[in-house]
Amino acid sequence: MGHLKENHTRINEFLLMAISPTWESQAILFAVFLLVYASTIVGNSLIMLTVTSDLRLQTPMYFLLGNLSFVDLCYSTVTTPKILVDLLSKKKSISFDACMAQLFFLHFVGATEMFLLTIMAYDRFQSH
């Protein structure tokens, strides 16, 4: 009985297709994504700063809102920087390991966000 040959091909990277075909449109998309990302960072940072600095907001719901802002900041940071880099680079690729890490953190932060939203809903349910 012969030995079966196994396929040991390993994928090292994924090539990402361009969102738009022209350099000008990619530059415009870069500016739009950067503006939205910067707004997300500033907005969520302000919410976290406000919740932690104002003593009147030291209630469970505002504690959860501050944490939700932190998780939203993490959620945006998982993918947006890579998109921004790829919009400006000629070679648009991501290594297999980086892709798996990004996928892991995307799911981890997404699950954390759903957990926080569930706790917030329960807190509202209990207070009424």
TrEMBL record:
Membrane topology: Multi-pass membrane protein
An example molecular function term from Gene Ontology annotations: olfactory receptor activity
Subcellular location per the Swiss-Prot or TrEMBL entry: Membrane
A single Gene Ontology CC term: plasma membrane
Chain ranges passing through the membrane: 27-49, 61-80, 100-122
Record's signal peptide: none
Keywords: G-protein coupled receptor, Membrane, Receptor, Transducer, Transmembrane, Transmembrane helix
Transmembrane recorded as keyword: yes
Annotated G-protein coupled receptors family 1 profile domain residues: 43-128
Gene3D superfamilies (UniProt xref): Rhodopsin 7-helix transmembrane proteins
Presence of keyword Transmembrane helix: yes
UniProt-listed PANTHER family: OLFACTORY RECEPTOR (PTHR48002)
Name of the protein in question: Olfactory receptor 4Q2-like
Organism: Podarcis lilfordi (Lilford's wall lizard)
